[in-house]
Write a structure and sequence with these properties.
Layout: H1 2-12, H2 33-36, H3 42-50, H4 57-64, H5 70-77, E1 84-85, H6 91-94, H7 102-110, H8 117-124, H9 130-137, E2 140-141, E3 144-145, H10 151-155, H11 162-170, H12 177-184, H13 190-197, E4 200-201
Parallel strand pairs: 1-2, 3-4
């Protein structure tokens, strides 16, 4: 069964993705306020919108902790979550993923550095079934190298448009993050540059 899943993934091109398939999970930086209102109170929804951009799940949790208890935040994170960086997230940040256990958080850290989501699926698939791997994948991403990532990689960044993918590629090779900020800042504001930057690296 796992082999069949892998073959289907490869055939679809999704194996290239560096941001987990997040079709069932809204991004707190992008979700509309009225959609947030389906999950939290109007005051909490406003606090989320006012706190943007969130560059980590911890930043989102700190904002929400002012108005929602842990149980309420856990319930929200089943629907809205800022994906975590698999290679750099702290244990506390990993533990924000709904249903996460200390043992599984350890396994997330054990296999660093991750170079692809296929590696994540393979390693975490040693401990849970395919459905749970797919659920966990929604909550994670692997920073992609600005100079080597593919067009399909860039497309997985939440809110990415074809035009922005083109601009990401247009200015290669990047020699510094300052160059990235300067060039991409021609098209979007500073908050959006910071959000996009959080998914990429030059390492």
């Amino acid at each position: 069964m796992r082999l069949l899943t892998l073959l289907v993934t490869l055939a679809s091109g999704a194996a290239l993705a560096q941001v987990g398939n997040h079709e069932g999970l809204a991004d707190p930086n992008l979700i509309a306020g009225d959609e947030l209102g389906k999950h939290v109170s109007p005051d909490a929804a406003k606090a989320i919108v006012d706190g943007r951009p969130y560059l980590s799940a911890m930043q989102l949790d700190e904002v929400l902790a002012k108005s929602l208890n842990k149980s309420e935040r856990d319930a929200l994170y089943a629907h809205v979550f800022r994906q975590i960086d698999l290679n750099n997230a702290s244990e506390d940040e990993i533990m924000l993923i709904p249903g996460m256990s200390g043992r599984m958080a350890h396994e997330f850290e054990e296999y660093r550095p991750y170079t692809s989501l296929d590696q994540f699926r393979r390693e975490i698939g040693k401990y849970v079934d395919d459905d749970e791997v797919a659920r966990l994948e929604q909550y994670v991403f692997i920073p992609m190298n600005l100079n080597t990532a593919s067009e399909d990689d860039f497309k997985t960044i939440p809110g990415m448009t074809p035009k922005m993918v083109h601009e990401f590629e247009e200015y290669r090779p990047y020699t510094s993050m300052e160059q990235f900020r300067r060039e991409i800042g021609k098209y979007v504001d500073d908050d959006e540059v910071a959000r996009l930057e959080s998914y990429v690296t030059l390492d």
